[in-house]
Amino acid sequence: MNVRLPVRTRLTMAFAAGMALVLAALGAFLYVRVGHDLTGAIDMDLRSRGQVLAGAIGRSPSGPDPVRSRGPLIDPDEAFAQVLGASGRIVDSSSAVAAAPMLSPAALRSVVGPTFFTTRVRGVDDPVRLLAFRHGTDYVVVGATLGDRNEAMGRITLALAVAGPVALVGVAWAGWVLAGAALRPVERMRREAAAISLSEPARRLAVPPTGDELARLAATLNEMLDRLQEAVQRKERFLDEASHELRTPLGVLRMELDLALARARTPQELEAALRNASAETDRLVRLAEDLLVLSRTSAGTLPVHRRAASLADLVERGAEANRARAAAAGIEIQASCQEGLTAILDPERIRQAIDDLVDNSLRHTSAGGTITLSAEKRDGRVLVGVRDTGTGFPPGLLRQEWPGGAEREGGLGLSIVRAIARAHGGTLRLGNADGGGALVELELPLQPAPELPGKS
């Protein structure tokens, strides 16, 4: 099972790992630097003693004992010297290293200028540092033990081994504290977000006045909460409108059936009741289809089946299908369309949109009014319009961005039309016509936009 560590723990571990690398690099640099400085000091001392020894040999052609010539400058326990011939034999030597030459003939032959060696010498327990240079036909070799240097390096290693982990623990603890302090506002924000419930939908997170990432996070979360609240309100509005739309035809249908069963009826009365019940059933079917369209739109899967269709045919069929209902209400329906206008679209969906727009106009147009259906080509797009002489849209609705569910007196029609328009890559515009009444325009592309490469 994949167990994720808390963010604070992960931040502390990452901080500690980074500091461990830094401390390791710093310790390695310090170790190398101090070792280099100590070796440099030994080399400088060897050069100085080599110059003194070469001067003493120059003043004594017989080749005096280097130790005796230098007097107190040579400590037999820490420093020593030899004068070697070209063949490697000992010409003169300090007593501590007199048992054998400190350098082999092969090493002597590699000496061109002053050359340093780190090696082992018989008679000396510790590693030694040697400086060899030519002096006439002989070679002068001066040396010093590295015991003090190695002891100092050991102490540095011990100090780093002890202080490094202690420093790392201290740094990790500081990282833990800093991570906690940095995440504390996030945790407070989380608790505030968890406290927001449906009982307090308008409650929002406090945005700190820092202008940093936390402030932007709080602002983003508040925007998300606004969208969620709007979605909840839209859902509640949708349910209210759906129940309102369904209640009327169901009530009429029940009333017609109850009246038909209440007493004996003539065949004509039964036929009229059945016709009314059939009309209300058709309305219920259309409402069910509308609700299905909205549910598919919410899931983002509203399908459209495009093919070449005549706009004149769709507009005329929409007008003809609603003329009987309009005539019963004393309303005239007119239809006009640009001749020969065709587009690549889903005719069933567009017909459904036209019926919903006409139904919306019929509800808000008084007897003696007129509803006009039209279709035309404008700026390379198709405009399907429905204009009526009814009450028009309230100014407040037209001034704000239309949320997709509002109508003059509630309903689902415009929501359906908007969903269909979007599925075709079009838009829905609401407005009020000059002289009164509503004007709704469904703007559609003549043909679908080409899909982007790699997009299915």
Descriptive account of the structure:
- This protein has 456 residues and is α+β, with helices and mostly antiparallel strands.
- Strands 2-1-5-4-3 form a five-stranded antiparallel beta sheet. It has a five-stranded mixed beta sheet with strand order 7-9-10-12-11. A two-stranded antiparallel ribbon has the order 6-8.
- It folds into three domains: 144 residues, Beta-Lactamase, CATH 3.30.450; 83 residues, Helix Hairpins (Orthogonal Bundle); 144 residues, Heat Shock Protein 90 (2-Layer Sandwich).
- The chain contains ten helices and twelve strands.
- 54% of the residues lie in helices and 17% in strands.
- The C terminus is likely disordered.
Blueprint (SSEs and pairs):
Elements lengths: L6 H53 L6 H5 L8 E6 L5 E4 L11 H5 L5 E5 L8 E8 L2 E8 L1 H49 L17 H50 L4 H32 L8 E4 H18 L3 E6 L4 E4 L1 H17 L6 E9 L2 E8 L6 H5 L13 H11 L3 E6 L5 E8 L11
Parallel strand pairs: 7-9
Antiparallel strand pairs: 1-2, 1-5, 3-4, 4-5, 6-8, 9-10, 10-12, 11-12
Overall structural domain count: 3
Helical run tally:
10
Low-pLDDT parts are 62-76, 399-410, 452-456
CATH class descriptor name of the largest domain? Alpha Beta
Into which percentage range does the β-strand content fall? Answer: 15-25%
Going by CATH, the architecture of the largest domain would be 2-Layer Sandwich
The gross shape turns out to be rod-shaped
Fill in the CATH topology of the largest domain. Beta-Lactamase
Mean pLDDT: 81
Order of helices and strands: HHEEHEEEHHHEHEEHEEHHEE
Structural class, judged by helices and strands?
alpha+beta
Number of strands: 12
Distance between the termini: 36 Å
Query: Percentage of helical residues?
Result: 40-55%
- The strand line-up of the biggest sheet is 2-1-5-4-3
Query: Strand count, sense and closure of the main sheet?
Result: 5 strands, antiparallel
Compute the CA-based radius of gyration.
Answer: 50 Å
